[in-house]
């Protein structure tokens, strides 16, 4: 899906933005979520929830994929590597969102500083301690049909703001929603369904 969205348009208005869930999304899959939009075009949009951790660790994933070798970094080095629940679409599909110091033939730029790689090569590099300086493994994604995201933003379902790279990769998941709002100068307690857009 990402390739199709990226080919359709160079940069969409929500590329590289955070979507921050408004209160009316309570009791939905997106309650109190922060989503990093990595592709937006007239073909639709794709992003990743960045404040929900998976129940598995990176060492667990590497074992499941048979990527553990004699060269594998110690579990202590890999335990802090974020593994995220990226969204309800294709939850078994994995992506690595990472800094631009790692590049493979399958890496796709999603912003000036971040790339997305969906192959096992990047995980092999991470396992050997030769991966990108900053990265997160993301399982699943959030997707929108053409015009759907624009309609949801117009309906005040989401606040939008420029993404903060430090928030994308940090592991303090429980406070990430409030910190994303504070980066906009907004407190969660001040949100209502009538709040405007940044």
UniProtKB/TrEMBL annotation:
InterPro entries membership: AlgH-like
GO cellular component, one term: cytosol
Pfam families membership: DUF179 (PF02622)
Family: Belongs to the UPF0301 (AlgH) family.
HAMAP family: UPF0301
Name assigned to this protein: UPF0301 protein TM49_12945
Organism: Martelella endophytica
């Amino acid at each position: 899906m990402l390739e199709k969205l990226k080919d359709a348009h160079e940069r969409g208005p929500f590329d590289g933005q955070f979507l921050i869930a408004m209160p009316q999304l309570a009791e939905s899959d997106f309650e109190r979520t922060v989503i990093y939009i990595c592709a937006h075009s007239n073909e639709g949009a794709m992003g990743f929830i960045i404040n929900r951790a998976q129940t598995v660790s990176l060492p667990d994933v590497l074992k499941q994929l048979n990527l553990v070798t004699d060269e594998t970094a110690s579990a202590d080095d890999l335990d802090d590597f974020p593994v995220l629940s990226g969204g309800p679409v294709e939850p078994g599909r994995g992506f690595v969102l990472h800094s631009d110091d790692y590049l493979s033939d399958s890496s796709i730029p999603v912003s000036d500083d971040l790339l997305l790689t969906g192959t096992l090569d990047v995980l092999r590099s991470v396992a050997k301690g030769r991966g990108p300086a900053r990265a997160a493994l993301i399982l699943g994604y959030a997707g929108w049909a053409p015009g759907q995201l624009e309609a949801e933003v117009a309906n005040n379902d989401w606040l939008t703001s420029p993404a903060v790279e430090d928030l994308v990769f940090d592991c303090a998941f429980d406070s990430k929603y409030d910190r994303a709002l504070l980066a906009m100068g907004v407190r969660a307690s001040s949100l209502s369904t009538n709040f405007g857009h940044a």
